[in-house]
Design goal:
The complex is a heterodimer of chains A (about 400) and B (about 160). Chain A has 15 helices and four strands. Chain A is about 70% helix and about 5% strand. The longest helix of chain A is centred in the N-terminal third of the chain and has 34 residues. Chain B is mainly α. The longest helix of chain B is centred in the middle third of the chain and has 26 residues. Classes of the chains: A mainly alpha (about 400), B mainly alpha (about 160).
């Protein structure tokens, strides 16, 4: 059977993951603009497609067809290398992230993961620590003082926040006693007292908070987006970039966000394990999607605006269809395993991504000295304390 | 396959090492060093030292070299000016003499050192568990001494960096 061939199977998996990831990155931007718009009482993208749903497509076409300008006085090699480095490293980490358990489709048995490393956690840390070169080089090669300042800030910030990040990662690793993402998730399956999930979140709540905050800084997001502080540095390290080079930096930022949230989900939120015991958790997605569909149907039957008569029932149909798919999957074990794992994993990632966007819409930017003081006198001791307490508890309870 | 990967990355390491010396601009040199570190990490990985490989990338390529690049950017160091002109004849002669010198040294090493078996791919017991166990049992004293040394260096750096104490 050709599908059992390692290379064929891997190629298929890579194609699926790459397609889904790149589409997600494009739509993440749409989600971000929409959420921020609604927080600020605007409607956000609305013109291209229904509710601006085709806006990402339009943006991609716009960015591809724009002229890729290379300013004079830039260091050509590094100027062109920087966005490539940034986006390549940002997309690499996804290769070791597992999305679900082992599945068997017909004769083929495979994990819902591109590649399994015994040192997956270290790999993600390593790739993210090299990722700073993209930003730093881009800022330096542009030969522009705003870009240079952005690149400098970015390197200093990422070195500083990598410490609390790594220490926050180390604490759940002590609990699970492995560096393999699969084993980490397997450790977190099961329930205390029958209903509390055994996620690392509960013993490691402090580590989770530190990880998220350091994650904001690592991905250069508000409130730590000093490298591209618009009011001080125009656009920071990517001021001189246009067209696809600019898009590459943009993609790298969103890909990093997805990676950070995926790692947080795997380390602290139990990966694809549902938050409720087995028979109950199966009905959650059905209820959720059916409820959304029914709400849309209700509003479609009592239209407020002229077009609601058509759009809302159509939306309702989509949601009810998804609910039906989840319902039918209960009778097909393979489909159920895939869909449930994907639902919970993507659901947790989306919730965390929403937190990222929510914070961006809510918090103002730090000043640079505040940023550094916060990292070294706030987060670092906190994560160190968390690690020490965790190791003490592990040392006392093990054996 | 493993031999091919070895030669590719060994080649990259040597090329980056030479490039590091040849380049006149500090940033280019620093990035060549990153290339050396990265390809060394791949070689460690081939030997089976997965933890060492990742530590190499995280610590050297990801932290130390970023600091190097950071400082070079901060000081805005430009390309090094060459102070003297070398004639083409001297360059060629130098290359030949260098090759001969290196050949002699390798010959000497080969003849004097005892013959051992070559290192096998995947021969190291380099999993994180093994490294950790060795580090905290067999090599505990060197490990602790190294950490104290680094601590002293940090304290010294802070003392030097502070204007007044």
């Amino acid at each position: 059977m050709i599908l059992e061939n390692f290379f064929v199977l891997t190629l298929i998996k890579v194609a699926v993951v790459a397609f889904v990831l790149l589409t997600t990155l494009a739509y993440l931007q749409w989600i971000e603009r929409k959420v921020i718009a609604h927080v600020q009482l605007r409607v956000g993208p609305y013109r291209v497609g229904p509710h601006g749903l085709l806006q990402p497509l339009a943006d991609v076409v716009k960015l591809i067809t724009k002229e890729g300008l290379i300013p004079s006085h830039v260091n050509r090699l590094f100027y062109l290398l920087a966005p490539f480095v940034a986006v390549a490293l940002a997309l690499t980490s996804i290769a070791v992230i597992p999305f679900g358990p082992q599945i068997t489709i017909g004769p083929v048995t495979t994990w819902m993961q591109l590649t399994d490393l015994r040192i997956g956690v270290l790999f993600v840390l390593a790739v993210s620590s090299i990722g700073v070169y993209g930003v730093a080089l881009g800022g330096w090669a542009s030969n522009n003082k705003y870009s240079l300042l952005g690149g400098l800030r970015s390197s200093a910030q990422m070195i500083s926040y990598e410490l609390p990040l790594a220490l926050a990662v180390a604490a759940p690793l002590l609990l699970t006693n492995t560096l393999d993402f699969r084993d980490i998730v397997n450790y977190q399956s099961g329930y205390w007292l029958g209903f509390i999930p055994r996620w690392n979140l509960f013993p490691e709540i402090l580590g989770f908070i530190v990880f998220l905050i350091a994650g904001f800084a690592e991905t250069n997001r508000v409130p730590f987006d000093l490298p591209e502080a618009e009011n001080e540095l125009v656009a920071g390290f990517h001021t001189e970039y246009s067209s696809m080079n600019f898009a590459a930096f943009f993609m790298a930022e969103y890909a990093n966000m997805v990676t950070v949230t995926a790692v947080a989900t795997l380390l602290f939120l139990g990966g694809w394990t549902p938050p409720f015991p087995e028979p109950y958790s199966d009905f959650i997605p059905i209820i959720l999607f059916a409820l959304a569909g029914l709400v849309a149907l209700y509003h479609g039957l009592n239209p407020v605006r002229r077009m609601d008569k058509f759009t809302l029932p159509a939306t309702a149909l989509v949601f009810l269809g998804i609910a039906a798919i989840f319902g039918l999957s209960l009778f097909v074990p393979v489909a159920k395993a895939i869909l449930m794992a994907l639902f919970w994993f993507c659901g947790k990632i989306l919730v965390l991504l929403f937190v990222f966007i929510w914070v961006r819409a809510t918090l103002p930017r730090f000043r640079y000295d505040q940023l550094m003081r916060f990292a070294w006198t706030g987060l670092f001791p906190l994560s160190m304390f968390n690690l020490l307490v965790t190791s003490l508890v592990v040392a006392l309870t093990s054996k | 396959m493993t031999a091919l990967i070895f030669f590719i990355f060994a080649g990259i390491a040597v090329f980056c090492g030479i490039n590091l010396v040849v380049q006149t601009h500090p940033i280019a040199s620093a990035l060549s060093l990153v290339g050396v570190m990265g390809s060394l990490a791949v070689l460690y990985l081939q030997l089976g030292g997965e933890f060492i490989a990742m530590a190499q990338v995280i610590v050297y390529a990801g932290a130390i070299m970023v600091l190097f690049v950071f400082v070079i950017m901060l000081l805005n160091a430009g390309a090094e000016a060459t102070t003297f002109q070398v004639s083409r004849f001297v360059k060629y002669l130098g290359a030949i003499l260098l090759a001969a010198f290196l050949g002699l040294i390798s010959l000497m090493i080969q003849s004097t050192l005892p013959r051992t078996e070559g290192v096998l791919f995947g021969a190291w017991q380099g999993t994180t568990l093994d490294v950790g166990r060795k580090l905290f049992t067999a090599y505990l004293l060197p490990f602790e001494v190294t950490s104290v040394l680094i601590l002293i260096a940090i304290v010294g750096a802070i003392v030097l960096a502070r204007k007044e104490i």
